[in-house]
Design brief:
Elements (H helix, E strand, L loop, with lengths): L5 H8 L4 H8 L2 H12 L6 E5 L5 H7 L6 E6 L2 H14 L4 E4 L12 E7 L7 H14 E12 L6 H9 L12 H6 L2 E12 L3 E10 L2
Parallel strand pairs: 1-2, 1-4, 2-3, 4-5
Antiparallel strand pairs: 5-7, 6-7
Bound molecules: S-adenosylmethionine.
S-adenosylmethionine binds next to helix 1 and helix 4.
Amino acid sequence: MKNGHFITRLLELGAGIYDPLLRLSVDERRFRGRLTELAELKGDEQVLDIGCGTGTLDLMLFKLLDNGSICGIDVSSEMVKQAKRKTQRSGCKINYKGGNAKELPYKSDVFDVVFTSLMYHHLTYEEKEETLKEIHRVLKLTGRYISAEFGPFPDDFFHRMFIRFTRSSGMLQGLYPPDLIEIAGFYVVQQMDGPLLGGHHPIIYRVLRRDT
Ligand SMILES: C[S@@+](CC[C@H](N)C(=O)[O-])C[C@H]1O[C@@H](n2cnc3c(N)ncnc32)[C@H](O)[C@@H]1O
């Protein structure tokens, strides 16, 4: 990854220890279990995971599909490497590739379900707008977009410092901008609180559908 925000580059360097770190930060089974439930999979869906990281969610999704398929994309080549390694070890078939959320290398109207899990806060406001447009493009009219993203941070010293430190990284607009959802032609079907990440950062689940 040549470009990318500070936090994204840091994650790329730490791709090898991402899984144990996340396990320490959140009850992963519960966190990801809720995401898979929200997908309401029947077994034959075409699924896309944007910012797939090391692909843990995809391995869980694979077990729920009989005839469907899963694609995972991530801007970090190290993350993609980790995801491919885990997939090979587990014997699952998942199509991973490197690429940017704002220019998805997929045809229009092909996915039944699109996920972003803790990815969206890595993007600047403009990138969020472009990414939502891309998700809208690749999603079938009947499809659903499911996200797990940080909710509003508590107004405490730690979070004020955190936002200050990550101001130029996209984190400042990590909180899902609701106006963009409408602009991109989506509406919110379901929204619910998720677990706290690291005991501090609230996570919110959202299910979006295309309204155009
Ligand atoms: C916090 S990790 C989350 C990984 C995984 N989705 C999960 O739930 O564990 C964020 C991921 O988003 C990826 N990412 C950041 N910006 C991206 C972009 N513009 N396009 C695609 N992936 C991106 C990062 O490389 C990283 O793997």
